[in-house]
Write a structure and sequence with these properties.
Helix content: 10-25%
Strand order of the largest sheet: 1-2
Strand content: under 5%
Structural class: little secondary structure
Radius of gyration: 20 Å
Order of helices and strands: HEE
CATH superfamily: E3 ubiquitin-protein ligase SopA
Shape: globular
Largest sheet: 2 strands, parallel
CATH architecture: 3 Solenoid
Distance between the termini: 74 Å
Number of helices: 1
Number of strands: 2
Length: 156
């Protein structure tokens, strides 16, 4: 095969890569889906619409929901270890008794979120998160990173 053949094909490949890089990401809408008790670890759903998602006692370990809308979602007893959810919206969600060990929840919105007895550890990161009207009974945030987090009208 000639050098010109290789050059043409290489140029075509690079053009396809360039096209892929400029494409907009697809916004996934899984709102109002019921997936309770499922093994969902490792999901990649950044900026997804997960409003009113029901994931009671599901395992979302290591999933990425950065910037996702989880408002009014239901996840009591969910296993969310190491979840990456920076900037996600949990307004009016219920995540009582969830395991948030090692979760990255930087700049998340927890306005009116019901999250009593959630499990956190030294690797749980709530830096810059907003807890306004949040129900936090039985939660020890002293071990987690809460640098710059806002706490107002906390309910116990």
């Amino acid at each position: 095969m000639s050098i010109s053949w290789w050059r043409r094909h290489a140029e075509a490949i690079f053009e396809r890569i360039k096209q892929q890089e400029t494409k907009q990401s697809i916004k996934i809408d899984l709102s109002m889906l019921e997936v309770s008790g499922r093994l969902l670890s490792g999901l990649y759903l950044p900026a997804a619409n997960l409003e009113k998602l029901i994931y009671t006692e599901s395992d979302l370990t290591g999933s990425n929901v950065t910037g996702a809308n989880l408002s009014a979602s239901l996840g009591p007893g969910a296993i969310m270890r190491g979840i990456i959810a920076g900037g996600a919206n949990f307004t009016d969600a219920i995540i009582s008794d969830a395991d948030l060990s090692g979760a990255i929840l930087v700049a998340c919105n927890f306005t009116n979120t019901v999250m009593p007895n959630v499990k956190v550890d030294k690797d749980t990161n709530f830096a810059g998160a907003r807890f306004i009207g949040t129900y936090l009974s039985g939660v020890d945030l002293s071990v987690a990173n809460i640098t710059g987090a806002v706490f107002r009208a906390i309910r116990r």
